[in-house]
UniProtKB/TrEMBL annotation:
<dbReference type="GO" id="GO:0008934">
    <property type="term" value="F:inositol monophosphate 1-phosphatase activity"/>
</dbReference>
<dbReference type="InterPro" id="IPR000760">
    <property type="entry name" value="Inositol_monophosphatase-like"/>
</dbReference>
<feature type="binding site">
    <location>
        <position position="91"/>
    </location>
    <ligand>
        <name>Mg(2+) 1</name>
    </ligand>
</feature>
<feature type="binding site">
    <location>
        <position position="213"/>
    </location>
    <ligand>
        <name>Mg(2+) 1</name>
    </ligand>
</feature>
<keyword id="KW-0479">Metal-binding</keyword>
<dbReference type="GO" id="GO:0007165">
    <property type="term" value="P:signal transduction"/>
</dbReference>
<keyword id="KW-0460">Magnesium</keyword>
<dbReference type="GO" id="GO:0006020">
    <property type="term" value="P:inositol metabolic process"/>
</dbReference>
<keyword id="KW-0378">Hydrolase</keyword>
<protein>
    <recommendedName>
        <fullName>Inositol monophosphatase family protein</fullName>
    </recommendedName>
</protein>
<dbReference type="Pfam" id="PF00459">
    <property type="entry name" value="Inositol_P"/>
</dbReference>
<feature type="binding site">
    <location>
        <position position="94"/>
    </location>
    <ligand>
        <name>Mg(2+) 1</name>
    </ligand>
</feature>
<feature type="binding site">
    <location>
        <position position="73"/>
    </location>
    <ligand>
        <name>Mg(2+) 1</name>
    </ligand>
</feature>
<dbReference type="GO" id="GO:0046872">
    <property type="term" value="F:metal ion binding"/>
</dbReference>
<dbReference type="InterPro" id="IPR020583">
    <property type="entry name" value="Inositol_monoP_metal-BS"/>
</dbReference>
<feature type="binding site">
    <location>
        <position position="93"/>
    </location>
    <ligand>
        <name>Mg(2+) 2</name>
    </ligand>
</feature>
Length: 261
């Protein structure tokens, strides 16, 4: 199904209103006592804000786009087996550890795909009050400012962002990638890391992610002519965990060469 540009813009502006409301509620909740639970391990946290944000977003999507399916982190969505039709992805608080312990470098992320094609993505930098949003038909914006494609910089001349846990335990060849980069950083959240790549502050980012972690960033990065693949160069599976690599063309090419060697 194809959309007219005005339809895309209407969807974009509708979700922008949702995010404005969610930001206000999230900031308010941060000034109150958080209810923090542990999921798979002590570093995998979930809060009442994660759950409440997801509930609100899912309700808004179901009201706005009846018949769509929703892939979300905290259990309020669906469990689709394919990407047919309208599929929304929701990460209500990306970087919950950062949210709880640092009060920065976390995001709220939403994405829309239709029949497997990326249509729109939104990454809200909550503390910065900036929404990075858009898609292939309308371009990518930082709030209302249209963004340009990042410079195609080599790995050796830029900063690479990597998963700290996987780097620490020498997984996925991250130690080799870090050694070949000009520098490396660990942010601890997908949304803020994607933001740094699409802004041209980093030449790439890689981590093992679930679909809600990378769906929005994938839309924005691909629209800005960045490459987004599995770490082995294969296409992403939008309904499974992937070891995702988003990078400039030159950095992507270098990392593929490093992995082969």
């Amino acid at each position: 199904m194809s959309f007219q540009q005005f339809e895309i813009q209407e969807i974009d502006q509708t979700v922008m209103l949702w995010l404005d409301e969610l930001r206000t509620q999230t900031i308010t909740a941060m000034n109150q006592q958080l209810d923090v639970d542990v999921k798979s391990d002590a570093s995998d946290l979930v809060t009442n804000v994660d759950r409440n944000n997801e509930r609100i977003i899912v309700e808004k999507i179901r009201s706005f786009d009846a018949g769509a399916v929703i892939v979300s982190e905290e259990g309020y969505g669906d469990r689709p087996t394919n990407m047919a039709g309208h599929v929304w992805f929701v990460d209500p608080i990306d970087g919950t550890m950062n949210f709880v312990k640092q009060r920065e470098d976390f995001a709220i992320m939403i994405a829309l795909y239709v029949d497997g094609e990326p249509i729109l993505g939104w990454i809200l930098d909550v503390m910065g009050n900036v929404v990075y949003h858009g898609g292939p038909q309308i371009g990518v914006y930082s709030n209302q400012l249209r963004m340009t494609n990042p410079v195609d910089t080599q790995l050796e001349n830029g900063i690479i962002l990597l998963s700290g846990k996987r780097l620490l335990y020498n997984m996925f060849g991250y130690d080799t990638i870090a050694k070949h980069a000009l520098g490396y950083r660990v942010i601890g959240a997908a949304g803020p890391s994607f933001i740094r790549v699409i802004r041209g502050q980093s030449v790439g980012y890689s981590s093992k992610m679930m679909p809600w972690d990378f769906a929005a960033g994938n839309v924005l990065a691909r629209t800005l002519d960045l490459l987004v693949t599995n770490l082995d160069g294969s296409p992403l599976d939008m309904l499974k965990s992937n070891v995702v690599l988003v990078a400039t063309h030159q950095t992507h090419r270098k990392i593929m060469t490093l992995r082969k060697s």
